[in-house]
Amino acid sequence: MVSKREEEYLEVMYLLQKNKGVIRVKDIAKILKVKPPSVVDALKKLSKKGLVEYEKHDRITLTEEGRKIAEETYSKHILLTEFFTNVLGIPPEIAEEDACQFEHYVSEVTVKRIREFITYIQENCPYVLKQFLKKVQEEDKNQKTPAR
């Protein structure tokens, strides 16, 4: 079993590998806003679980299983962000923050249903979606969207 925090580490490593081509302790620490020793401790735990390959002062790589978990988590993140912004009209910065929280707790059943709903509403009810988004944008302008 992988904890929420471990998923966060795996997702960050996946994105670093994808975007920078290399995973470094200092980059993980900066993104997650933790100290490098905390990253090293997490890497040791993830290594024991077979999710990363890590040796001090050596390359950090995700194992196949670690990459799979990271991709699933990131996929949920993208879907939830899209749902919150494009369907519910949530401002992007709030949607991003909420997606970071939800992605670790939402079930595959719910993810599948959200994906189906987005497709259905975009294909079959685009006018309704457009009207709803227009309505919430008007409300946001009049109320000034609550900040976090």
Automatic annotation (TrEMBL):
Keywords: DNA-binding, Transcription, Transcription regulation. Belongs to the DtxR/MntR family. Residues 1-63 form the HTH dtxR-type domain. GO terms for molecular function: DNA binding; DNA-binding transcription factor activity; protein dimerization activity; transition metal ion binding. The keyword Transcription applies. SUPFAM superfamilies: Iron-dependent repressor protein, dimerization domain, Winged helix' DNA-binding domain. PANTHER family: IRON (METAL) DEPENDENT REPRESSOR, DTXR FAMILY, IRON-DEPENDENT TRANSCRIPTIONAL REGULATOR. This is HTH dtxR-type domain-containing protein. Coiled coil: none annotated. It holds the Pfam family Fe_dep_repress. It comes from Pyrococcus horikoshii (strain ATCC 700860 / DSM 12428 / JCM 9974 / NBRC 100139 / OT-3). InterPro entries: DtxR_MntR_Metal-Reg (IPR050536), Fe_dep_repressor (IPR001367), Fe_dep_repressor_sf (IPR036421), HTH_DTXR (IPR022687), Iron_dep_repressor (IPR022689), WH-like_DNA-bd_sf (IPR036388), WH_DNA-bd_sf (IPR036390). The keyword DNA-binding applies. It comes from the Archaea.
